[in-house]
Specification:
The structure is a single chain. By secondary structure, this protein is of the alpha/beta class. The protein has 2 domains: 76-215, OB fold (Dihydrolipoamide Acetyltransferase, E2P) (Beta Barrel), CATH 2.40.50; 246-411, Vaccinia Virus protein VP39 (Rossmann fold). It contains 9 helices and 17 strands. The chain has helices at residues 11-33, 47-58, 111-124, 166-169, 171-180, 247-259, 297-306, 347-355, 371-383; strands spanning 65-67, 76-84, 87-93, 100-102, 141-149, 154-161, 186-193, 211-215, 222-224, 234-236, 265-270, 285-292, 316-320, 335-338, 362-368, 387-395, 404-411. Strands 1-16-17-15-14-11-12-13 form an 8-stranded mixed β-sheet, sandwiched between helices. The chain has a 7-stranded mixed β-sheet with strand order 4-3-2-5-6-7-8, covered by helices on one side. Strands 9-10 form a two-stranded antiparallel ribbon. Strand 5 and strand 6 form a beta hairpin. The termini are far apart. The model is unreliable at 28-32 (pLDDT under 50). S-adenosyl-L-methionine binds at residues 244, 271, 292, 339.
């Protein structure tokens, strides 16, 4: 049998092959280090996902799992900035440490976020801007918050500065802003003044005087959830309100919520944010009262509601206050919607739900971003007479050990 002729590659082909191998090695190394990509090869194998499937199986319920795009899904990111040998070090903290892993070029990020990070990193390499140093509390830039307006692919960037005001920040901030404004990446540029001597663990300072917009239109960044049926809603997402990182996947949760809200229901929504879920129920409710503790959310809700058909607006209202302060409204509702932070329901809210009884059936729609807390709350609700009517799991952060749980409880 004749020997096969050995294929000879040109120098260019060899170089390209080496580059491909190097990129493959870099990607594999990033997956080992980046805590958001640990389970990216098989997101359904994450421990929390397996735990949730087992939990619902014990309840006699099947848990369907929904997974969308594994790349380019993150349209909102809050990243730490620290002092590095070559300028600014921007990325995520490794688990149980204060060591930062760079996420420049991360496959999970919307391409616009990666472009923005590259611009900031290149500017930071000059050395004129100092990353924050946790050991002595010195440095300039502590965090960056990046939000993409998906319709335009422009980025709303927030620079969290280690100072109490623009005057205190001085010439280094002015220099950075001058450099950033040369790029056409930005929807707007915001400053958040959060000095290290405030002794707070919060990434952002939420006092009104801590915020300053220095570039871009005064009109808030807007997002429409195009896959959701019903009246079109443009949600307002300035940098000082909560926004889901994976809006593309969260759209499916909003659509599902609509399906489980009977027509002409009296709805109370706690932990409502800017009304991401509630406003998309405007054509299905006889009344909706939405609430949240962030004082900025009410204005965003009102601006979005103002664009809805005039006949729907009188049915919609917003109350500023934490969920515990709104528990008196729970017994009045046909449907209660909760989307609490990772720690789960406040004890006062959980107790109000456990006590609540109406003459007709009442429904609870629970959207959870922290499964251990949901598991605890779910068991208490079942013990109090609620039954699980429907449940689904959503992989909102593919690659991370995380699950967003959507659960509908009924009580006769």
């Amino acid at each position: 049998m004749p020997k096969r002729k050995r294929e000879t590659k040109t120098p260019t082909q060899l170089r390209n092959a080496r580059k491909r191998k190097a990129k493959k090695r870099e990607k594999a190394t990033a997956r080992l280090q980046d805590p958001s990509l640990v389970y990216i090869d098989d997101p359904l194998s994450a421990p929390t996902v397996l735990q949730a499937k087992h939990f619902f199986k014990e309840l006699g319920q099947r848990l369907p799992l929904q997974l969308k795009a594994k790349e380019g899904w993150r349209s909102s990111a809050k990243l730490a900035v620290r002092r590095g040998a070559d300028g600014l070090k921007i990325g995520l903290f490794l688990p149980k440490s204060h060591e930062i892993i760079s996420v420049l070029g991360c496959s999970a990020h919307h391409p616009a976020i990666n472009q923005a990070l590259e611009a900031i990193t290149v500017i930071g390499a000059s050395g004129k801007i100092k990353g924050y140093d946790e050991l002595d509390g010195t440095g300039d830039l502590r965090y960056v918050k990046l939000d993409v307006e998906r319709s335009t692919e422009l980025v709303q960037v927030t620079l969290v500065w280690n100072a109490s005001s623009q005057e205190e920040a001085g010439s280094s901030l002015s220099w950075l802003l001058k450099k950033l404004k040369r790029h056409e990446l930005w929807h707007s540029i915001w400053l958040n003044f959060n000095a290290a001597d405030k002794h707070t663990s919060r990434i952002l300072a939420y006092e009104k005087e801590a915020w300053l917009q220095v570039h871009g239109p005064k009109r808030f960044l807007r997002e429409a959830l195009h896959s959701v049926e019903g009246e079109a809603v443009e949600l307002c997402f300035p940098p000082f309100v909560f926004r889901q990182a994976n809006l593309c996947a969260f759209e499916d949760i909003v659509s599902l919520a609509r399906h489980f809200v009977p027509a002409q229901s009296v709805v109370v929504e706690l932990y409502g944010g800017v009304g991401t879920i509630g406003l998309h129920l405007a054509d299905r409710v006889s009344s909706l009262v939405c609430s949240d503790e962030n004082p900025h959310n009410r204005l965003c809700f009102k601006r979005s509601a103002k664009a809805l058909p005039e006949e729907l607006r009188p049915h919609l209202s917003y109350v500023q206050g934490d969920a515990a302060s709104q528990v008196k409204s729970v017994p009045t509702a046909d449907v209660v919607i909760v989307d609490p932070p990772r720690k789960g329901l406040d004890e006062a809210v959980l107790q109000a739900l456990c006590r609540s009884r109406k003459k007709k059936q009442q429904r609870l729609i629970y959207v959870s971003c922290g499964f251990p807390a949901f598991q605890r709350d779910c068991q208490k609700l079942i013990d109090a007479g609620w039954t699980v009517h429907h449940a689904e799991g959503f992989i909102l952060f593919p690659g991370a050990d995380h699950l967003e749980t959507f659960c509908v409880f009924d009580r006769a």
